[in-house]
Design a protein that fits this description.
The protein has 365 residues and is α/β, with parallel strands linked by helices. Helices cover 51% and strands 16% of the residues. The protein has two domains: 169 residues, no CATH class; 165 residues, Trna Endonuclease, Chain: A, domain 1, CATH 3.40.1350.10. A six-stranded mixed β-sheet has the order 1-6-5-4-3-2.
Length: 365
């Protein structure tokens, strides 16, 4: 038998795991040191601006001279150094995070990362040091209050949000949605699954890719659906991770009659089919009966044996939580009701094509 055949698969897997783990630690250490470096440079720049009354263009000269001293240096353009100053200005008074940003690596680089046993106690610090400077800058430029910034920092770290996803969550103002969507998950799902489901869905979804001139204007449900389908990537970013799109107007046949679900998804984390019904106006109790029917049909006709019960989300313009609660009370299928919000801002390309209100009034007169 050749020596190559004596190498076990477990041995290769073990070495692979060690390499991956080591790379992960190195990447974390590099990220933490980058954050500390940017904070320190931001501090130095801020002090110089205040002490020497620097003007806005001075950083262009600083950047050029750094390039002369360190040819090929990247990441230290004038605009990036302005970001470093903003990073320092945002966090320099936060006593909880300050030691982590000012301590040196010295001879023990692993010491900069909170230990696994200490992770829960130091959740904020661990999350702060885990996300990139680009993520941080997105947060500090959009969120004024630190308590709200921590929401996005912890979410980005724990759910591995990319920068594009973070931007969507910031635009959606997810930190304001402390209250989860009204649902009956705890009554219709086991404890573990219901907790996962509660975390998977939001009370409000920002459909900013749908533009209406009047914020109070009702959108036709088919138009709303088509706009979502046309912008399915944006909609899925609004939903969050783990959603796979299965189709719109998804056909179910029951006793020879056809029924169509507006939007059907599969959620990998929940291992559940998720049906969305779109409603252009206020929530009405009769919507629940129709959704309950769809979920029963999905569980009977579509659900695989290893999958969990199907979940329904009624997405409407407005809702009253007490009406939702009473509507759900005697139904056995897991459902929730969320609202959608569109933007009333006209896209820039259309603004240029149309006359201003003043110009239009002048023309009419």
């Amino acid at each position: 038998m050749s020596q190559a055949l004596n190498i076990s698969l477990d041995f290769i897997k073990n070495i692979k795991q060690q390499i991956v783990a080591s790379r992960y630690i190195v990447a974390k250490i590099a990220n933490v040191e980058s954050l500390r470096l940017y904070f320190a440079i931001g501090k130095s720049i801020d002090e110089q601006f205040k002490e020497k009354k620097w003007g806005a263009k001075v950083l262009d000269t600083v950047s050029e001279r750094l390039q002369q001293e360190l040819p090929g240096l990247r990441g230290f353009s004038a605009s990036n150094m302005r970001k470093m100053r903003a990073f320092y200005a945002y966090w320099h008074n936060d006593k909880s995070i300050l030691p982590s940003l000012t301590d040196k690596l010295e001879n023990n680089p692993k010491a900069i990362l909170p230990s696994v046993t200490n992770k829960l106690e130091n959740e904020n610090i661990y999350s702060f040091l885990s996300i990139s400077f680009t993520h941080h800058y997105e947060i500090i430029t959009k969120i004024k209050e630190h308590k709200n910034a921590w929401f996005y920092i912890n979410k980005t770290a724990s759910e591995f949000w990319g920068v594009r996803h973070l931007r969507t969550e910031l635009k959606n103002k997810s930190h304001l949605q402390a209250k989860k969507l009204p649902n009956n998950f705890t009554k219709t799902l086991d404890n573990v699954l219901s907790n996962k489901a509660i975390r998977a869905f939001k009370d409000q979804y920002l459909l900013d890719f749908i533009n209406v001139e009047d914020a109070d204007e009702e959108i036709d449900e088919r138009v709303l659906e088509q706009e979502i389908v046309n912008n399915i990537k944006k909609f899925m970013m609004s939903l969050g991770s783990d959603f796979s799109f299965m189709g719109n107007q998804y056909r179910l046949t029951v006793d020879g009659d056809e029924y169509f679900i507006d939007l059907l998804f599969f959620h990998r984390g929940l291992q559940s089919l998720v049906a969305f019904e779109l409603k252009k106006g206020k929530f009405k109790p009769e919507y629940v009966g129709k959704m309950n029917f769809y979920l029963s049909a999905l569980d009977d006709l579509m659900k695989q044996p290893h999958e969990n019960p199907s979940i329904g989300i009624i997405l409407c313009k407005e809702k009253k939580n007490k009406k939702v609660e009473y509507s759900f009370r005697d139904f056995t299928k897991p459902m929730g009701v969320a609202v959608f919000k569109t933007t009333d801002k006209l896209p820039a390309k259309y603004k240029k094509a149309l006359p201003s209100p003043e110009e239009l009034k002048r023309l009419l007169d």
